[in-house]
């Protein structure tokens, strides 16, 4: 077995040991890098100077793109405008957030946050990779998807309401769902499980890889999710094997029909030092048709947990590996789909892998070794290296043949002229650095509008920094994140704005305003006429069903009675037909706090657990009589209850 070929170029010597990296991170902050770049736009001719005095509606016409940034431990999505860098909205998903009407008292939300496999309600999440839906590998503005790294689930948001419509849970795994990407037409989503796991016995037996529950190593999977015409997601397959995976890109163009992913822990270690033992790790190339064929040939099992999801062995599908720089993180696909770009976090190397050459090696069955039955492709024959800086992270692309690679340790972004057919376009030395853009500080992901598609929009780059330090006034030990806006349609690339954003964004994408703005809903389509206000008592189930309407400045009914200990099912409709007139429904001394938009109906479920008089009131300042917009829930001990106390229509 030969896992790695020897490297003639001495790539190994460029590998920087993690310990050194950590030391340099600290030192990097001593030097301030705020000196303006030569040729930067100066005051006076700066198109970003706002008008004074400010004209009303200025920002509405100013924005070119909506940016959707995953919120990390915020559990949802931040939405802001480019180039204004002004926060517009948040989309709650995995964390409850009454500000945006996202709570467990809301029946629909609770159902989405309930794990169908364990029954547990999970209200904390960690969003990482946004996916804007696409057609022909370009954004089409239908949906936004994002994954929860912590609990192995993913969400779909509709871009007319900016709200979450579905959460799909992944069976057989306990979380650590990291890389997430879409096929060129968003019929297939592919995701990676980063944390090696200990699946149920049926899967362990089928894989037949020795696993020690206490010491490891374990196994992991890459999975496919089918997206129906109406956006509904469904678990389609899981391919299990010996490795974990980090980032993933589903190919288009030259790489159509394939997806690629990386493993930073090809060592299969369970500790940090062990994950750096090899000189290089792997990038994998997977043929999607071979996965479909394995299913058609019945080469799979299903688990007890999910009898409808095929579990396939890695060796029953077509998969190849090529060496990649030590502990890879960023893995991105250049707009034509031909070059995969991958950086090794613990090196100075950004590697460009030519898929046409990879494919030629595969077709010629020209391999340099194998591991766990996976053929290994020569790195020297298929790739080239750029020695570009310390600690490469993520990569994005523009429409002019440049790639942008972020560096955590160097705290900068290198603008690199790409080779191949791009050389003709930019006329620069192929794979050469043309600019170094300082960042503040320690770059994670980058965003170029459309930068992960076949046709990037270019013009802007947003650098998403992991550390902020002295950028903004101090605000306690937990510090905001910083998104920095850079113009990239000129070299050198000037910094034009910095925006504080609460923790902690990972990937973000941006789409032209006109693709979304024209389809935005102003008012929900209300079923007319709305149900008449009513209260019905179900003595068998000990439930009260309340149908209520909200309109400036009344709740109808404005009081109802409940026997103590009964469940309340409240169907609340905001019957307003005016834009921006949302109402709220907060119930004192109960964990109920809802927001309800014009035309919207929500089902609110809770228990009237204590005797007393409890006011409910509107949360949004909706009219001059907002404070008066309130009502009473009167809870009567069961032994004092009689049918005469039932609410009656007036
Ligand atoms: S990856 S750490 Cu996008 Cu950097 Cu999650
Ligand atoms: Cu309705 Cu305030
Ligand atoms: Ca490694």
Description:
The protein is mostly beta strands and about 650 residues long. It has a five-stranded mixed beta sheet with strand order 8-9-10-11-15. Strands 32, 33, 34, 36 and 39 form a five-stranded mixed beta sheet that branches. A hairpin with a 2-residue loop joins strand 4 (about 125-135) and strand 5. The radius of gyration is 27 Å and the shape is globular. The N and C termini lie far apart (about 85 Å). The structure holds (dicuprio-$l^{3}-sulfanyl)-sulfanyl-copper, dinuclear copper ion and calcium ion. The site of calcium ion (CA) has 10 residues, from loops. Dinuclear copper ion binds near residues 583, 620, 621, 622 and 629.
Provide the descriptors you would attach to this structure in a database record.
650 residues; mainly beta; Methylamine Dehydrogenase, Chain H; Immunoglobulin-like; 2 domains; five-stranded mixed sheet; 9% helix; disordered N terminus; binds (dicuprio-$l^{3}-sulfanyl)-sulfanyl-copper; binds dinuclear copper ion; binds calcium ion
**Which spans have pLDDT < 50 for at least 5 consecutive residues?**
1-42
Indicate the radius of gyration in whole angstroms: 27 Å
Share of helical residues: under 10%
Category by helix and strand content? mainly beta
β-strand percent reads 35-45%
**Number of helical stretches of at least 4 residues:** 9
CATH-defined fold name of the largest domain: Methylamine Dehydrogenase, Chain H
CATH architecture of the largest domain: 7 Propeller
Number of domains: 2
CATH C-level of the largest domain: Mainly Beta
Envelope shape: globular
Largest sheet: 5 strands, mixed
User: Mean of the pLDDT scores?
Assistant: 93
**N-end to C-end Cα span:** 84 Å
Can you list the ligands bound to this structure? (dicuprio-$l^{3}-sulfanyl)-sulfanyl-copper, dinuclear copper ion, calcium ion
CATH superfamily of the largest domain: YVTN repeat-like/Quinoprotein amine dehydrogenase
Strand line-up in the sheet with most strands: 8-9-10-11-15
What is the number of E strands? 41
């Amino acid at each position: 077995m030969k896992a790695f070929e020897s490297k003639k170029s001495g790539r190994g010597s460029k590998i920087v040991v993690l310990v050194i990296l950590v030391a340099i991170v600290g030192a990097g902050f001593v030097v301030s890098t705020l000196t303006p770049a030569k040729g930067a736009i100066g005051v006076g001719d700066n198109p970003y100077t706002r008008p004074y005095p400010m004209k009303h509606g200025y920002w509405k016409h100013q924005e070119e793109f909506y940016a959707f940034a995953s919120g990390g431990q915020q559990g949802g999505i931040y939405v802001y405008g480019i180039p204004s860098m002004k926060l517009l909205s948040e989309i709650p998903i995995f964390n409850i957030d009454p500000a945006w009407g996202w709570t467990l008292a809301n029946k629909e939300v609770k159902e989405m946050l309930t794990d169908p496999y364990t029954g547990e309600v999970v209200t904390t999440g960690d969003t990482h990779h946004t996916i804007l839906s696409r057609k022909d590998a370009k954004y089409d503005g239908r949906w936004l998807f994002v994954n929860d790294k912590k609990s192995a689930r993913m969400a779909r948001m509709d871009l007319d309401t900016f709200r979450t419509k579905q959460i799909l849970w992944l069976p057989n795994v306990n979380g650590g769902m990291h890389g997430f990407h879409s096929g060129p037409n968003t019929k297939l989503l592919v995701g990676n499980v980063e944390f090696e796991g200990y699946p149920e016995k049926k899967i362990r037996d089928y894989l037949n890889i020795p696993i020690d529950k206490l010491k490891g190593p374990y196994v992991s999977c890459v999975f496919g999710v089918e997206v129906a015409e109406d956006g509904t997601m469904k678990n389609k397959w899981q391919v299990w094997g010996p490795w974990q995976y980090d980032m993933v890109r589903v190919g288009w163009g030259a790489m159509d029909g394939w997806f690629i992913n990386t493993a930073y822990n090809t060592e299969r270690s369970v500790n940090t030092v062990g994950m750096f033992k090899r000189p290089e790790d792997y990038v994998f190339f997977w043929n999607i048709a071979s996965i479909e064929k394995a299913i058609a040939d019945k080469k799979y099992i299903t688990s007890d947990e999910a009898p409808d999801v095929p579990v396939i062995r890695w060796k029953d599908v077509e998969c190849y590996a090529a060496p990649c720089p030590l502990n890879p993180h960023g893995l991105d696909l250049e707009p034509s789909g031909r070059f995969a770009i991958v950086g090794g976090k613990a090196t100075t190397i950004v590697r460009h892998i030519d898929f046409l050459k990879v494919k030629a090696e595969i077709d010629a069955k020209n391999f340099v070794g194998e591991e766990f039955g996976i053929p290994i492709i020569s790195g020297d024959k298929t790739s080239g290296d750029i020695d570009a800086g310390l600690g490469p992270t993520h990569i994005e692309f523009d429409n002019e043949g440049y790639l942008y690679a972020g560096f955590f340790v160097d705290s900068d972004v290198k603008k690199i002229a790409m080779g191949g057919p791009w050389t003709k376009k930019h006329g620069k030395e192929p794979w050469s650095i043309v600019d170094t853009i300082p960042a503040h500080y320690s770059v994670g992901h980058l965003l170029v509008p459309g930068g992960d598609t076949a046709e990037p929009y270019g013009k802007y780059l947003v650098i998403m920094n992991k550390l902020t330090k002295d950028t903004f006034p101090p605000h306690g030990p937990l510090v905001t994140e910083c998104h920095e806006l850079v113009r990239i349609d000129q070299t050198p690339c000037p910094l034009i704005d910095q925006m504080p954003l609460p923790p902690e964004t990972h990937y973000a994408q941006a789409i032209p305003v006109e693709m979304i703005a024209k389809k935005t809903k102003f008012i929900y389509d209300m079923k007319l006429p709305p149900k008449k206000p009513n209260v019905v008592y179900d003595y068998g189930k000990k439930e009260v069903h309340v149908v209520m309407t909200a309109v400036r400045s009344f709740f109808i009914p404005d009081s109802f009675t409940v026997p103590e200990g009964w469940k309340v099912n409240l169907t609340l409709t905001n019957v307003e037909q005016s834009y921006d007139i949302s109402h709220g429904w907060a119930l004192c001394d109960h964990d109920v706090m809802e927001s309800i938009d014009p035309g919207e109906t929500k089902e609110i479920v809770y228990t009237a657990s204590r005797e007393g008089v409890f006011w409910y009131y509107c949360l949004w300042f909706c009219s001059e009589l907002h404070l008066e917009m309130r009502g009473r829930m009167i809870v009567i001990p069961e032994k004092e209850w009689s049918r005469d106390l039932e609410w009656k229509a007036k």
